[in-house]
Amino acid sequence: MNMATAPEAPHPASELASGPALSNKGQILAWASWDWGSAAFNAVMTTFVFTVYLTSKAFGGEDSTSATLGAALAIAGVAIALLAPVTGQRSDAGGRRKLWLGVNSAVVAVLTGSCFFVFPKPEFLLLGVTLVALGNVFFEFAGVNYNAMLAQISTPANIGKVSGFGWGMGYLGGIIALLTVLQLFVQPSFEWFGASTQDSLNIRLVAVYSALWFFVFALPVLFAVPEVSVKRAESRPGFLASYGLLIRRIKAIYRTSPHTIYFLLASAIFRDGLAAVFTFGGVIAAGTFGFELKQVIFFAIFGNVVAAVGAMIGGFLDDRIGPKSVIVISLTGLLLAGTVILVLGNGDYMFFGTHWAGSTTFWVFGLFLCLFVGPAQASSRAYLARLAPDGESGELFGLYATTGRAVSFLAPALFTLCITLATPLVAPGAAQRWGILGIMVVLLAGLLVILPVKSPNKTEIATVPLS
């Protein structure tokens, strides 16, 4: 591959290469604490508790509420695609990566706590899905700066393990958060005012608890990891002008490292499918397989244990066989498990003399889905961190978020479309299961697109100034 040249002096090969020679364990733990805290938003609010509440009969039928939630998340994806492109770029240029991580994390906590005011009535459905959708927007903004910090705290030899450790901490945090929610609010072990189910007070208090959980565990990284230094001397452009600068940088990356762009496009597709697995997992468990909320939470706890193990094993393999191999294996496993749930999840079957109900199928193969999601997520993050030019990790992860959210309407939209198309063809209440097909299509597309993309060790890194 021919490298484009430029008259300016080259940057160091990557922020990772110019980072610390040895990792600081305290900084890694503080960084991973944010992942641990984020479980309150990801696992409790977005996946297993609050979205299940929003799609319950209190707000209307499961099919219509699921479609409304999917539409809101699709709109949120479009909003992120329009607003996120320059957030990382501007935090890099201004040396404010940590500042904006803190600001956006605080906004997510406020939006999460505001879900307390979503009462179990159909007229509150729009408020609920709007708060969750906005929370996703600002959570993604925070994630741009958080992911960019990976190159600050890891080395080329351990970046896969550090990324996998962060994802694993997120899943383990989800276990503790869900167990606490189960014991205090959903199936309380003692009587207290928060256990009241009148007007779903217990579930609405889960939102307050989740907001506090996320805020508290987001704090350590803001104190332990130093602020990124300003690497570029050029004047900071205005917000709209930043889009023009972004386009010029994308062109420069394409000239010097086209497979970086190819990876961004491929990961945008499959990460949308990965997000949908967790976003709609609890919804499908409740609406299609008849899980009660406490059963959804039990499944979530086991699922998070399996996902944490998968993420850490994937991180270990990442440093040995490369992130692309881990991603391909994970996507293949997801497609196989998802296919079984879609095909066999609609009734009872006999396997070698053993009776399998649809719920059993979901338990077994739903856990396989959880096993493969973590490694794909962790290796995707580590893949890009290996490529980020020095001082520009935030910008590249901003582009990572942008490309991801530019297509983040795909899985929610296809989930909604498949439900809509299936509704007149199946029994009432049976259409939701076909939303799985929409998620599967996105995962398959992501797998097909990433196959020709070169692994990071074979991809030349953009080492020229991208301005």
Can you put this structure into words, describing what you see?
- The structure is a single chain.
- With 467 residues, the protein is mainly α.
- It has a single domain, classed as Growth Hormone, Chain: A.
- It is built from 17 helices and 2 strands.
- The chain has a two-stranded antiparallel ribbon with strand order 1-2.
- Strand 1 and strand 2 form a beta hairpin.
- Helix 4 packs across helix 5.
- The N terminus and C terminus are likely disordered.
Q: Please tell me the overall pLDDT.
A: 82
The percentage of residues in β strands lies in under 5%
Structural class: mainly alpha
CATH class: Mainly Alpha
| Strand segment count | 2
The general outline is globular
Number of domains: 1
What is the H-and-E element order? HHHHHHHHHHHHHEEHHHH
Contiguous helical run count: 17
The strand order across the widest sheet is 1-2
Task: Give a quick rundown of the structure.
With 467 residues, the protein is mainly α. Helix content is 70%, strand content 1%.
Topology:
Blueprint: H1 25-48, H2 50-54, H3 62-83, H4 87-94, H5 97-114, H6 125-148, H7 150-153, H8 159-186, H9 201-224, H10 239-256, H11 258-287, H12 293-321, H13 323-344, E1 349-351, E2 354-356, H14 358-387, H15 393-406, H16 410-422, H17 435-450
Antiparallel strand pairs: 1-2
Helix pairs in contact: 1-8, 1-9, 1-11, 3-6, 3-15, 3-16, 4-5, 4-15, 5-6, 5-9, 6-15, 8-9, 8-12, 8-14, 10-11, 11-14, 11-15, 11-17, 12-13, 12-14, 13-14, 13-17, 16-17
